[in-house]
Amino acid sequence: MDSKRALSVAVEAAMAAGNLMYRNWRTQKRVNAEAMHDIKLELDERCQEKICKILRSVFPKVAVLGEEGTVGDPLADERWVIDPIDGTVNFAYQIPHACVSIALQQRQGNEYVNCVGVVRDPFCDELWTAVRGKAARLNGKKIRVSQRARLSEAVVSVGFAKYDENLKKMLPQLEKLAPRVRKIRMMGSAALDLVYVACGRMDAYLESGVRLWDIAAGAVILESAGGEFWHRALPGEHTYHIVANNGLLRPELERVNQGESK
Ligand code: LIP
Known about the structure:
This protein is α+β, with helices and mostly antiparallel strands. The chain folds into 2 domains: 3-142, Fructose-1,6-Bisphosphatase, subunit A, domain 1 (Fructose-1,6-Bisphosphatase, Chain A, domain 1, 2-Layer Sandwich), CATH 3.30.540.10; 151-257, 3-Layer(aba) Sandwich (D-Maltodextrin-Binding Protein, domain 2). The chain has 7 helices and 15 strands. Strands 4-3-5-6-7-8-9-10 form an 8-stranded mixed β-sheet, sandwiched between helices. The protein has a 5-stranded mixed β-sheet with strand order 12-11-13-15-14, sandwiched between helices. Strands 1-2 form a two-stranded antiparallel sheet. The chain is globular and about 55 Å long. It binds L-MYO-inositol-1-phosphate (LIP). L-MYO-inositol-1-phosphate (LIP) binds at residues 67, 83, 86-88, 159-162, 188-190, 207, 210, 214.
């Protein structure tokens, strides 16, 4: 698939879904399902439908693997990976920190490579884009990760995914990390955490139990901005442990997590 065309249609789809989110920012949202640490909105589905319609109008045969369902063969050589609203709980509570995340993946052997990434935050009117091998951009301007090489200077985001076992896994890490960094942030959107590291607003982002559609677009944007997207698959479909950073901080993050004092 031509990356330039793929980027263009993904931007069109992200802008359209972002506009739908923004128009519904302060409305009462219809809840389809809720759990202790999660909410599913009717708008999640409507945004995904809007995105799929635009993507498949240009690439009718490319599969879509989305948080709200799959279209076509998700194991095909090429697939879109989409989170129509990343930060759904924020959005449900009218907290303006949520986004649309759209990635194009291409199969290489048994692995999938993130080739194109688009993240749209309609509340801040920000659009992050990247094509693998080219510069990452924010509203068209090139972006780079920070050069902060010490945790004591770093702003680090920690995500608590939807299930209690992830809380149990991440709380001890949070307790070790918090005294050693400038600030901890817990923002509620994996995709925005990744692109904030990509543009130097943050220096690292850690989460265990995050899903592929939350991170695929942000991953290629972060790597294209010079960052490191360290990740390990966990049991469970499309589930990962990630240590995303500016390319300088993972050794110290790992030492802290292993309890080694600096
Ligand atoms: C969210 C992620 C976030 C995670 C939440 C949730 P959603 O995705 O972006 O990092 O901590 O549990 O999974 O559900 O809002 O698309």
